[in-house]
Here is the input.
Amino acid sequence: DAKTTQPPSMDCAEGRAANLPCNHSTISGNEYVYWYRQIHSQGPQYIIHGLKNNETNEMASLIITEDRKSSTLILPHATLRDTAVYYCIVRATNNAGNMLTFGGGTRLMVKP
Amino acid sequence: EAGVAQSPRYKIIEKRQSVAFWCNPISGHATLYWYQQILGQGPKLLIQFQNNGVVDDSQLPKDRFSAERLKGVDSTLKIQPAKLEDSAVYLCASSFEGTYGYTFGSGTRLTVV
Here is the structure.
């Protein structure tokens, strides 16, 4: 699976949009981009995933560049409860292992 | 639906002792994973089961770690003997047919002193 690069930490003001970038320049054509987050003392939680098109759900939006070499997770109105480590992962769903390989993630701090 | 259950929540042991962690996945989820998360790092996969068979255990330190999933449901991860560097959170996750929806448990925090 392709590796990803994320900034180690970011701050965001409460109520503002949080834009978390991820670089995955070696992504293959059959690899999806997944985002998980981990709130302190909890297990990682699935947020969203996509292949080519932008995706939106009740938690966030995922913007993938046309060349698919980078993406941005957008939390439209960040709250204090969004403070967490956010992991960007690329994975081929037809991978026999289907395993998630986590990097270091981005520690997002939402401030009042 | 009920989540992935793990126990115990916390465990403190002395080095060279043994310890076991238990995981009950979501009903119907055939795939089960054990991850190790050292403080400040992302989770690292230790072993993956499909039903009661091992799919991948390449990152499992087999000289001291063992895992089983009897009857394709519950799973147990054991460490014997424990070392100081085994101090970590051990996370269990399950998924339905290996699709995107991993569900993680809250983990077991192990401290080896």
